[in-house]
Amino acid sequence: MVGPILSLVIIILVGWLLVKKYNPQATLLIAGLLLLIIAQLLGNDLPVLTKPTGSNVFDLFAGIKESFSKTNAGVGLMIMAIGGFVAYMDKIGASNVLVLYTMKPLSIFKKFPYVAASLVIPIGQILFVAIPSAAGLGLLLMASLYPILIRLGVSKVSAVSVITASTVFGIGPACATTASAIEILRMDTVLYFLRYQIPLVWPLTLTLMVLYYFVNKHYDKKLLVNIDERLSTQSPPPPAPGIYGLLPVLPIALLIIFSEFFTWMEKPIQLDTTTVIFISFFIALIFEGIRRRAFKPVANAFSIFWDGMANIFKSVVTLIIAADIFAKGLISIGFIDGLLALTTQFGMGAIGLGIVMTLMIFLASMLMGSGNAAFFAFGPLVPGLAAKVGLSGAAMLLPMQLAASMGRAISPVSGVLIATAEIAGLTSMDIVKRNIIPLSVTLIVMLTLHFLYNDKAH
C-alpha cells in the first residue's frame, strides 16, 4: 500500500497547488515525473515505450516525447482545429448571431420570469454544443441575455447562475473532454454523442431546470429584488448576416448527416471531427468572401484560425500531455490497484468504483476550476479500472466526463464564474452559493439514473 498512499499524498498536493493557481501543466507534469521516479524506486512496472533509450532516467523524457507525438497526431490536432474554428466563428460574428436569435423567444415570458430563467439552461446547453467554451459562451450570454433576465425581474445572481448552469454538461463532438473520451474509448464521436451523452443529459437538464426554478425563486424573495431597477433590453444589432448563425452548428450537422445513423448514400462517406472542422472552415471562408467581396480579409482568416489553434495548443493540448504523464505515474505507482483493493474491501464492486471515480473527478474539478484538467488527469485511468471490475469503459467514463464540467460550475476559481460574476458586479462565491444545491442534487440524480437504472452501465 506504499504506492497508493504516496499517490494520494501527491494528488492532495497537486490539488492544493492548483487551488493556489500554480501553472496546471507544470504541476501535473512534475507530479507525473515524480510518481514515475517513485515507481522506479519501488520496482514497479513503468509504461512501455515504443523506442526506449536504454536508461531509466532518459526514458522519463522519452515518455514525454512520445506523449507529445501521440497527442499531437490524434486528439490534440482535433482539439486545436476546433479551437481555430471557434476563434474564427467569434471573429466573424457568427457566434453572436447564433446566441442572439436563439435567445429571442425568451422575451415572451414577461409574466413568468423564473420560467424564462430556467429555459436558459436547455437553450444554453444546445448553444454549448456548438460553442464549446464555457467562459466564451458565458460572456456571450451575459452580453445578450443577461439584460433581458434582469428586466423580467430576476436578480443578478439568479441571472448569472442560470447562465453558468448552461455550461455544466460538456457534450458534443466539439467538446475537448468528448474528444478525449472517444480517444480513450476508441469509439465513434457521433455514436458516443447520440447513444450515450444525450440519453443521460436530457433528464439531467430537466432536473436542473426544476431545481433552479425553485432555488432562484426562493432566494430572490429573500433578496427583495427591486423590479423597478431594470436594465434596458434593446438587443444590439446583429454583427453579421442572420445566416451566419448556422455556421457554428455546421460541424455537428455534417458529423450527424455522414454518420452510421444515416445510410442514405450507396457508398457511405465517413468523416472524422477534424476533417469536418476544416470543411466547415472553408465553407465559412466562402461566406466571408461573398460578404466582403475582397480576397484580403478571407486570406487573413487563416492567421485567425492558426492563432486559435496555437492558443488551444498552449492551454489545452499541453494540459492533456501533462495529465497523460500524471495518469501514467498514478498507474505505475499502483494507484489503480490500491483503489480496487479499497472498493473491494468495502464491498462496493463495479458500481461503487464508478461512483467513487465520479465523485473524485467532481471534487477535483471544484478544486482546479477546470473540468478539462480534472478529466484529462483521471480519464486515462478508466480503461484499466473498468476492465478489472467488469464495467464497460463508456459506463464509467460518461458520468466522470459530465461530473468534470459540473464541478467547474461550483468552483470559485473557474474562468466562467469569475468572468460572468465580474460583469454582474458579483463575486464568484455568490454564484457558487447559488449553484451548489442544484448541481449537488443533480450529481446524485445522475449517479442514480446512470448506475442503478441504466442498462448500459451494467
Features:
0% strand; mainly alpha; 74% helix; 458 residues; 21 helices; single chain
Description of the structure:
The protein is an all-alpha fold and 458 residues long. It has one domain. The protein is 74% helix and 0% strand. The protein has 21 helices and no strands. Helix 16 packs parallel to helix 19 (393-408). It is globular, with a radius of gyration of 23 Å.
Helix content: over 70%
What class, by secondary structure content? mainly alpha
Mean pLDDT: 83
Count of extended strands: 0
Euclidean distance between termini CA atoms: 29 Å
**What is the gyration radius calculated from CA atoms?**
23 Å
* Total tally of structural domains: 1
User: Beta-strand level of the residues, as a percent range?
Assistant: under 5%
Q: Order of helices and strands, N to C?
A: HHHHHHHHHHHHHHHHHHHHH
Largest sheet: none
Low-confidence stretches are 225-235
Name the shape in a single word.
globular
Number of distinct helices: 21
Short account of what is shown:
The protein has one domain (2-457).
Q: Topology, pairings included?
A:
Blueprint: H1 2-19, H2 24-42, H3 56-73, H4 75-91, H5 94-103, H6 113-130, H7 134-144, H8 146-152, H9 156-165, H10 176-185, H11 189-223, H12 250-257, H13 273-292, H14 295-333, H15 335-345, H16 349-368, H17 371-378, H18 382-389, H19 393-408, H20 415-424, H21 428-452
Helix pairs in contact: 1-2, 1-15, 2-14, 3-14, 4-13, 4-14, 6-9, 6-11, 7-20, 9-11, 9-20, 9-21, 10-19, 11-21, 12-13, 13-14, 14-17, 15-16, 16-17, 16-19, 17-19, 19-21, 20-21
